[in-house]
Write a structure and sequence with these properties.
There is one protein chain. The protein is α+β, with helices and mostly antiparallel strands and about 650 residues long. It folds into four domains: about 200 residues, 2-Layer Sandwich (Heat Shock Protein 90), CATH 3.30.565; about 170 residues, Ribosomal Protein S5, domain 2 (2-Layer Sandwich), CATH 3.30.230; about 190 residues, Rossmann fold; about 35 residues. Helix content is about 35%, strand content about 20%. It contains 20 helices and 24 strands. Strands 1, 2, 5, 6, 7, 8, 9, 10 and 11 form a nine-stranded mixed β-sheet that branches. A hairpin with a 2-residue loop joins strand 21 and strand 22. The termini are far apart. The N terminus is likely disordered.
């Protein structure tokens, strides 16, 4: 054994032990409590406050929640108001402090541990409001209770005033106002799109609860109300907006032994499954035992129906669980006591017993429903069999592809102009529209780190195509091979050859269409590379401006107008429609040079909205697309004809 001794001998002693008291530990290691100190962490603070109000609604004491966003010169401020019972304000004798102060400054405390107060709740560790308080520049709590309004303020988790009566109040409820601390967070702006998504599904999960989002930032006033009467059936209806329905919306809610299982589902004409799982109003993005139980129930229901009605004799392929969920959109919501989540961010449920509870509830209801609704049962079974046959066809196609060494071969596609460096952290792949632009980009690139893959025309619209057609498409096979990730069950994001995949298309309608087709493919079959931040869109200039011997490039109409004001009358103005109009030097200077270029990273900021848009704009149904284009036609800033 080799031991490394410090120069001063054994210096690891009691003096090296640091005790972080109160909120200091939270401020020292915020990631332990909120996951990150970026935009997601900031949103986590807001959601912790909102979830407390939602728990009051679940308990039957809150019907209205108002979320207000404002800002000052240094960042955003959030305020959440509910009409629940109000946080207790009386003195806790053990601490000689008001209950509000204890809740806001002490971890592992709260009424969520007492099932007499909250049968179920999203909060279970007793750290939520303490974390919000600790990581905020200031926090203000106003409680309406006992005919009075009470107020207490804090700064970075520490009380700045004692609990005081500040007036009279007719109703009850709580208002918590806070400003995330810029010393903690790298981002100080709340993402309104993600907040709207959260408010929307929260209203679906709590029918009758009215949530108002008011955004008074950016010198504007926006107000939106989220409320649902039919609950998660409305949720499924929202998910399937623009889709062709194969069944009605099927759903049931059952309470047993302090556990509520609420689910709704619908089969649509689609190749994908869309299942949203929740526990105590918390979205469990990574699923867990409740989702596993739902999957098993659907598979059992369909397989038993096929066997009972002797339909399996006609099958030439074996049906899998994935086949039974193709085209299935569903929401599964569980309310339960003492949920065991993996981590404070609550993304996966771990309670083992809940799997059998959900499985039994869903299986019993769906089995009876299919027997009583033979037409819809036939539509479901037909969809499942078609999915199984398509999967088998795709498997055979992939086997043929592998034999031809298209995906798994070390031989890269001939049209790919690869780079010299093979470090994915440094390398970039430009997907370029057309041979002309491909030639210019090959000449103008940095050959050490930049690879070029020219595509011929528009790739297949995967939203309308079966899996076997997708695997048979030459342009798609070329991309998959160039990326090195494989696809579907062989997909491995860690094997990617470039961690910047840059879509570089013309600045016209055709270019936008090609970019949309590519993003549709990535979203449906390589979503992980978008989530990891590997996909970008290049921003080529729209205009070339000349004044005397000087040349300038403008990337927007606003930049052009600013340049006009700066230079006065121009000697020349060219509107670029295609990348091919630029030579290799111009393409490098404006669009490819890492020192000068503009790139837009593609993110899934609002996954549900993206799902809807892809389905409406790229799907098989013409009427929803026509309706969308009609409603948004006034937002078009320029259009090539």
């Amino acid at each position: 054994m080799i031991c490394m001794e410090e120069p001063n001998g054994d210096s690891y002693n009691a003096s090296k032990i640091i005790v972080l008291e109160g909120v200091q530990g939270i401020r020292k290691r915020p990631g332990m409590y909120i996951g990150s100190t970026g935009a997601a962490g900031m949103l986590h603070l807001l959601y912790e406050v909102i979830d407390n109000s939602v728990d009051e609604s679940v308990a039957g004491f809150c019907r209205n929640i108002v979320v207000r966003l404002t800002q000052d010169a240094e960042g955003d401020i959030a305020e959440v108001t509910d009409d629940g019972r109000g946080i207790p304000v009386d003195i806790m004798e053990k601490y000689n402090k008001s209950a509000v102060e204890v809740i806001m400054t002490t971890i592992h405390k709260g009424a969520k541990f007492n099932s007499d107060v909250y049968k179920v709740s999203g909060g279970l560790h007793g750290v939520g409001l303490t974390v919000v308080n600790a990581l905020s520049e200031f926090t203000e709590v106003v409680v309406r209770k006992n005919g009075h309004s009470y107020r207490q303020t804090f700064a970075k988790g520490v009380p700045t005033t004692e609990m005081q009566v500040v007036g009279e109040s007719e109703g009850t409820g709580t208002t918590i106002k806070f400003k995330p601390d810029k010393e903690i967070f790298s981002v100080v702006t709340f993402d309104s799109a993600l907040i709207k998504e959260r408010m929307r599904y929260t209203s679906f999960l709590n029918p009758g609860l009215r949530i108002t989002l008011i955004d008074d930032r950016f010198s504007a006033h926006e107000e939106e109300v989220f409320v649902s009467e039919e609950g998660i059936k409305d949720f499924v209806r929202f998910i399937n907006k623009g889709a062709v329905a194969l069944t009605g919306i099927i759903g049931s809610k059952k309470e047993e032994d302090n556990t509520v299982v609420d689910f709704a589902l619908q089969y649509v004409e689609s190749y994908d499954e869309k299942i949203e799982p929740f526990v105590n109003n918390i979205k469990t993005s990574e699923g867990g035992t409740h989702l596993a139980g739902f999957h098993t129930a659907i598979t059992r229901t369909v397989m038993n129906y096929i066997e009972k009605n002797k339909l399996n004799a006609k099958l030439q392929v074996k049906i899998t669980g994935d086949d039974t969920r193709e085209g299935l959109s569903a929401v599964i919501s569980v309310l339960m006591q003492n949920p065991e989540f993996e981590g404070q961010t609550k993304e996966k449920l771990g309670n083992v017993y809940i799997k059998s509870v959900v499985e039994g509830t869903v299986y019993q209801y769906m089995s009876r429903y299919m027997e009583e609704h033979p037409a819809e049962a036939k539509a479901i079974v037909s969809k499942v069999i078609t999915a199984a046959m398509a999967r088998e066809s795709a498997r055979k196609a992939k086997e043929m592809v592998r034999k031809k060494s298209i995906f798994d071969s070390a031989v890269l596609p001939g049209k790919l102009a690869d780079c010299i460096d093979d470090d994915p952290e440094k390398t970039e792949l430009f997907i370029v529209e057309g041979q002309s632009a491909g030639g210019s980009s090959k000449q103008g690139r940095d050959k050490n780190i930049q690879a070029i893959l020219p595509l011929r025309g528009k790739i297949l619209n995967v939203e309308k195509a079966s899996i076997d057609r997708i695997f048979d498409n030459a342009e798609i096979k070329t991309m998959i091979t160039a990326f090195g990730t494989g696809i579907n069950e062989t997909f491995n994001a860690e094997a990617i050859r470039y961690k910047k995949i840059i879509i570089m298309t013309d600045a016209d309608v055709d270019g936008s269409h090609i970019r949309t087709l590519l993003l549709t493919f990535f979203y449906r079959y390589m979503k992980r590379i978008i989530e990891l931040g590997y996909v970008y869109a290049a921003v080529p200039p729209l205009y070339k401006v000349t004044k005397g011997k000087s040349t300038y490039y403008c990337y927007s109409d606003d930049e052009l107008e600013a340049k006009r004001k700066e230079l006065g009358e121009l000697d020349g103005l060219q509107r670029y429609k295609g990348l091919g109009e630029m030579n290799d030097t111009q393409l490098w200077e404006t669009t490819m040079n890492p020192e000068n270029r503009k790139l837009k990273r593609i993110t899934i900021a609002d996954a549900q909205r993206a799902e809807e848009l892809f389905r409406v704009l790229m799907g098989v149904e013409v009427l929803p697309r026509r309706k969308f284009l009609h409603e948004h036609s006034e937002q078009v800033k320029w259009l090539d004809v």
